[in-house]
Amino acid sequence: MPAITSGLASVGASGSPIPHLPNTAILPSHIFHNLGQYSPWFPASNLTDDAVPVDACEVTFVSQLERHGSRYPTGGAYKELRKTLRQIAKHLDHVPRATKDVKPTDGLDPQLEWLRHWVESKKTEDGGLRNRLGNSELTPYGQYEAYSSGRRFYEQYAHLFEDQEEALIDVNTDYQVTMDSKQARSSSLLEAVCSAPEVSASSNTWSTLHLLSSIRQAVCHLLSTSSSSSSAHASHKHTERPFVRASGADRVVTTSRFWLQGFAHSPHKPFRHAPPESAPWPQKGRPVVFDDLKSGKPHRRIHNLPKPDVIIPEARKSDKLGQTASNNTLDVYTCSAFERDYRDNAQSPAAHKTATFAHNATAAIRARLASQLGVRRGGSKDRRGERIHLEPRQVLQLFSLCAFDTAARLDPYGLLRNDVERNQDAVSPFCSLFRPEDFQSIYEVTTDIEKDYGFAAHNPLHKALATPWLRELVARLESRSPVMTPPTSINTTLDADRATFPMPSAKGPRAFVDFTHDNQLAPVIAALELWDEDHEWVTSLTTPFSGRLTVERLECAGEAYIRILVNSQPAHVSNGNWCPVSKKSHLPDSDQLCPLSAFLGPLTWVDQPNEWNKCYARKGRKGD
Length: 624
Known about the structure:
- The protein has a domain of 75 residues.
- Helices cover 38% and strands 8% of the residues.
- The radius of gyration is 28 Å and the shape is globular.
């Protein structure tokens, strides 16, 4: 039996190398492991030494909750970035180049001359942001992150998908169309040959027609058997991939599709990026796409990629575009107290704590940037008029531009082909605005506070937000339907139907993968109580781009256990409250393994209404 292992082989089951992500030579860890929710995915731990010994256990069930891959800024963030860059552009119009005739505090620091070009005015007067960064979509590198995640998932859990090598291409939509057309032709032939009426004949021709009729019956039986077998075979093959759901945002659905392509890793369908609609890629000055890819350039609608089994709309209300509002386990917005008191609320504890920390932590950076940008000492105005005065939130925006611009510059083909030169200078120049230690001590801490108090352990409603997904997880572990009273944010129509919410079974799916946003992943991770109370929330280790929570059910020496991984880092039984065990297991590395019954014990609250009922508390009540 395949043993559980966390180490990834260098060559996959298909015999081709596993896709890899940028190493620290391309993306320095002191920066890109400290960009909070905008960090590109990296494993939270080197798990080679943490793997359970060979043949000790076998994974029999997997449920994974995964955030979408690296993207461009969302619409709201895009507008704020544009305002800041336009402000810098207007300021630089009055700042001369640093020369011997210009005082150092009057001119632009020579190391920042690149900023003039970056923010130079365009026809859209957006401070140069457009044509470099798109809006909300996955970057090509974000698409590759999803592809790589799917590929690695297959390598990790290949034994759950029997005969997978024969069905590699079967998960691709265009292959299914081909199969359907073949079956259609077979059915048409079957109908044409076998549905024709018998021809009456004289006694002289009866023996001949009788012989032909017998032959026709034999052919019909053969065609019918072949068609049924083919149909059943195709149906069986479709159960041999994870059951995949995606929340309805374009970047989330796109992530699920590239993930499925990576899972299939068909030699006939290698990775090909889908060109973003909102920005040209590659950026001007970056390496062009390989010539052998240009003729096969995929359409943005990515028809040639697999599709998730279920897409749950994110519409808050029915609209003219035909979107219908619905409950959504993967994007909870039906907790009214949270929507009112916490989400995007400038008066929330998360907003206050974040603003206070950022004001103090960025003071030195603001003073330094003012000097480098040519602002005279003693004030923000001079004889040339209003001069730039960056606010703490604008400094944080410039930190985020380090992440967004780098994600836009990264070339996945350089990674696929191990061509280092294609990703030379991929790190955005915006990263150079800050000292190396600023990323960990300022930006990472800011995002940690924002997520911890906004969505995770220090938000009193985080368990309510986590209730729907955890109810579904517990139901599958107990082989029963989810509790749907109250429905919380569970879509009861979908979860009541085994076609849209299947149970694990020997012949059905034994792996389930859901795609979501960071603000839904964070409360689920926090609600599991994987760490002790003194543990500090670290956003880059929990909800980076392509961040993932993986729950495994294992059979070990005839007993059922649970193992939980957060971005490939195993949770330890000795930490947190997720696994109250009275005695140590005899299994090696048992600090990663929680008996199934012990894991389910602390989660009885998810089927109770208490946590969800907090969503209806009036503002100002204790516990809000």
